Amino acid sequence: MVNSKKKGKRYSQEQIIRILAELNAGKTVEEICRVYGVAQSTLYNWKNKYGEMDRDELARLRELEDENRRLKRIVAQQVLDIDALKDLLTKK
Questions:
Q1: What is the pTM of this model?
Q2: Which pLDDT tens digit goes with each residue over 32-64?
Q3: Distances (CA, A) of 68 to 17, 64, 65, 77
């Protein structure tokens, strides 16, 4: 179990999913908040963000986020390249 005396602890996505599974298994919101030292609003935010997600879905989400980051970097590089080419063409 997590030390409930720690304040401001960040939980990994796997831990959040495990905590939400406890909530779905029948533990009360108050009990979970007390044990893990989180506010009810935090628990509800987690529930909205992760919902009924399991570990496989979380892994897929991470893959998609990584791919999205990679694609954004590619687009940013292309924009820089296009700007550089435009500068070269206007100087001639």
A1: 0.59
A2: 999 999 999 999 999 998 887 888 888 898 899
A3: 22, 6, 5, 14
Ramachandran category for residue 31: left, alpha or beta (phi over 0 → left; psi -120 to 50 → alpha): alpha
Q: Are 39 and 47 in contact (CB under 8 A)?
A: no
Are the C-beta atoms of residues 42 and 10 closer than 8 Å to each other?
Answer: no
8 Å CB contact between 55 and 14:
yes
Spatial distance between the Cα atoms of 46 and 39, rounded to a whole number of angstroms: 11
Whether 46 and 63 map to the same domain: the answer is no
Q: Which domain holds residue 47?
A: 9-53
Half-sphere exposure of 58 (CA within 13 A, CB side): 14
